[in-house]
Amino acid sequence: MTRNSDWGGSDALAARLFMTRAHSQELAAPLSAEDQCVQASEDASPTKWHLAHTTWFFERFILEQRLPGYEIFDPRFNFCFNSYYETQGARHPRPQRGLLTRPSANEVRAYRAHVDQGLHHLFASPESEAAEVLKLIEIGINHEQQHQELLLTDILALFACSPLKPAWRSEKIKAQGDAPALTWSSFEGGVVRAGHDGERFGWDNEAPRHDTLLHPFRMANRLVTNGEWRAFMDDGGYEKATLWLADGWAHVQKEGWRAPLYWQETDGGWAQMTLHGMQEIDAAAPVAHVSYFEADAFARWAGKRLPTEFEWEQAAALSGANDEDRPAATLFTPRPAQGQGLVQMFGDVWQWTQSAYSPYPGYRPPEGAVGEYNGKFMVSQQVLRGSSCVTPQGHSRLTYRNFFYPWQRWQFMGLRLAEDA
Ligand SMILES: [Fe+2]
Questions:
Q1: For 390, phi and psi rounded to 5 degrees?
Q2: How many angstroms separate the alpha carbon of residue 104 from the centre of ligand 1?
Q3: pTM confidence score
Q4: Contacts of 34 (CB under 8 A, 6+ apart)
Q5: Short-list 220, 217, 172, 218, CA closest to 337
Q6: Ligand 1 centroid vs 142 CA: distance in angstroms?
């Protein structure tokens, strides 16, 4: 799955680990104990659960196995905070995570402190020289970063349910003028290499690097904006069955979709719930919180299509885009495009692709418990590429494959258009 921290020794890895652990607490700091307990939907999890589950991951897969004399904080937590690992035994039902009023938020903080102390002891022991341990720590860091993003998307889902419409952060979002005109970059076809090359960290689902055939295509310079989505709505986009995949149209009818998730019609037009509370909709900012079904219908309405994940990866590679190079977010909301050429590849919204989430040629799930991490979800989901405004900076990369079911839309999900050349 990974080659361990070959760009820094175990000291550098330890520094990143404890920074990541502390950052999760910082994200939760504005939240009350009540905020941290409630589950907004079956898809979302409570903050407290995210904080405990990421801690369980380090305890269960690393400290219990590799730190002699480590004392398990509370043996009952394996049942409470195992997410989906069949090899780790029975677990609390996912839709009922919000019923865990115990352990309290304070007890979960104590659990985190106990496990952090264990991790410090691990780094002071000869075990920290073992390649297998370093590899698992790297996985644990990346796993916790994924949950940092989920913590925020799940808090947004929760706060959107509240009539008080609380803000996780209080900044007002100011419109920044028009989006740059939509332009198209052309790319040649041919056999190209795609996927992770095994250098530095990558998830197992990004590998092996392999040949794939592209036909000549064009890619939009920027993401689809709220203003463009409004035009789709005004043109009856949510009312024309012919624009939709059959399963998508069934969802429109069943769920009563008529706008992206978190859009609300007010006296003054449409407004949007964000991590900064209710805000006016910035027409130039990328549309977010749309499902694959909606993205696909929009693309059909626009006379275009969604890119494949390999077109996206090739275009991103040739444009020199990189998640590590994006500026640190000061606002936790997608921002309007700036600059020329292919922009917004990372850091605003995850971008739906028309590629099904399936294994690459030669893929094998890794050995051991973490073999359940990605491989067993490779059916019925779509791949999203890039990263979002709530993805920890530098967590994603060119070959990163995010995946969700085509009806899900509570993540920061949007789209970029493509077409055949
Ligand atoms: Fe997890």
A1: -115, 10
A2: 20
A3: 0.96
A4: none
A5: 220
A6: 10
